[in-house]
Design a protein that fits this description.
Structural class: alpha+beta
Radius of gyration: 27 Å
CATH topology of the largest domain: Nuclear Transport Factor 2, Chain: A
Number of helices: 8
CATH class of the largest domain: Alpha Beta
Order of helices and strands: HHHEEHEEEEEHHEEHEEEEH
Oligomer: single chain
């Protein structure tokens, strides 16, 4: 092989190696989530050594909960004992399912908020949130603290999609207006929720709208809006979503947009904006009518 060919071959190898090395690199967010996932994988595998390797030596574990009488409790546990407990179980006896990740990173500090449901031997035990604090060390990201909450109320047991959840919420909301069910209609809105209607004066809080619209809910039907189409979007942590939809109404085709929030595991409408549609070739007549 000629010298020039050897140099070109070596240069190609270096470039290919550099390419795959760069491609293989993961972001800090991905690395942090990988540590969280590894912890729950270790629990499912009953691998005490794997679990222990993810913690710093001075890491802390704290649980916050209320008993049946509503008394507040806070319990701490040593990470070493946690590893021992994990190792005493059989594989798949401990199964903590994570439903979402909310990751924040600043330099060598990261926090991760996760919704979870814990299963013991296949049976749902409790649910809540985990608040992780992680430190980026010379050995990679390590867990400095986990604080969790625990409850047996309204626990999610199966994966769901934000799109399905939002569609179910909005379909039930529109149906509640059709059937004049004020409890579902106003109960689906956040307490500080905002409704913007088609009239320039219609900007109400939930309670203002409830007071003004209650007379319509005394009838068999308050109003009847049918969804033609809807698009749903969400944040990475799936705690906030927004949508736009086209509606068939007594005013003709309307469009609306809205924001929904996941509050204590339940989706609530925090902002809704309804508008009529006007074809461009009719806009001059429309403007004349509004003067």
């Amino acid at each position: 092989m000629k010298l020039t060919t050897k140099i070109l071959f070596l240069f190609t190898l270096i470039n290919v190696s550099t390419y795959f090395s760069t491609f293989a690199q993961i972001t800090d967010k991905e690395a942090v989530i990988a540590v969280v996932d590894a912890l729950f994988d270790g629990m499912r595998e009953a691998d005490a050594e794997k679990v222990d390797s993810l913690f710093l030596k001075d890491a802390t574990l704290i649980s916050i909960f209320r008993d049946r009488e509503g008394t507040h409790h806070r319990e701490s546990e040593e990470t070493a004992k946690f590893g021992e407990i994990v190792g005493k179980h059989l594989p798949n006896e401990l199964d903590e399912k994570i439903w979402s990740y909310d990751v924040n990173i600043s330099q060598d500090l990261a926090t991760v908020w996760t919704d979870y449901t814990f299963f013991f031997k296949g049976e749902m035990s409790h649910c809540g949130v985990n608040a992780f604090t992680l430190h980026n060390t010379e050995y990679g990201w390590k867990i400095l603290n986990i604080t969790d909450t625990r409850t047996k109320q309204n626990c999610q047991t199966l994966p769901t999609s934000v799109e399905n959840d939002v569609n179910n919420l909005m379909n039930a909301w529109h149906k509640a207006a059709t059937t004049a069910d004020e409890d579902i209609f106003f109960g689906s809105m956040k307490s500080a929720g905002i409704y913007i209607g088609t009239d320039q004066t219609e900007l109400w809080t939930r309670e203002e709208m409830k007071a003004l619209m209650m007379k319509y809910f005394q009838k068999d039907t308050a109003w009847d809006f049918k969804t033609i189409e809807r698009n749903v979007y969400s944040t990475d942590n799936e705690q906030v979503a927004w949508f736009d939809e086209k509606l068939d109404t007594w005013m003709g085709v309307c469009r609306s947009s809205g924001v929904v929030e996941k509050i204590e595991g339940e989706w609530k409408i925090s902002h809704y904006h309804l508008s009529v549609t006007v074809d461009n070739d009719l806009i001059k007549e429309f403007i004349a009518l509004t003067k």
